[in-house]
Amino acid sequence: MTGSEPSPILAGLSCRCPRCGQGRLFRGYLKVAPRCERCDLDLAFADSGDGPAIFIIFIVGFLVVALAAITSSLVSLHPLVHLAIWLPVTLALCLALLPPFKGVMIALQYRHGAEEGRPL
Ligand SMILES: [Zn+2]
């Protein structure tokens, strides 16, 4: 780690390498690239597990339920209309937020040297 490393939050949100902040972190939608194309960082350590999904479930769940409740208090809609509105919104938000959240988790994992525990 050097002082010139990018912020793990900014590098993660932009889905960039946690060491140089330039190379792409993902090859495809959520598949982590084997190495950084710029600084050659081996990204084999990257394993965010279920962390990003848990954060997104809480954030998107709270947001969509709040928006649905506000909408419901303002206008009377048939439940199927609510479903037609909020189901695609939920899906789009979850799919849009997964890569940046996974990027942040991997960048924080790199910054703090987090790795799988080993028996003593
Ligand atoms: Zn890099």
Automatic annotation (TrEMBL):
Record's keyword annotation contains Transmembrane: yes
Key words, A-Z: Membrane, Transmembrane, Transmembrane helix
Highest taxon of source: Bacteria
Name of this protein: Uncharacterized conserved protein, DUF983 family
Lineage: Bacteria, Pseudomonadati, Pseudomonadota, Alphaproteobacteria, Hyphomicrobiales
Transmembrane segments: 53-77, 83-101
A Pfam family recorded for this sequence: DUF983
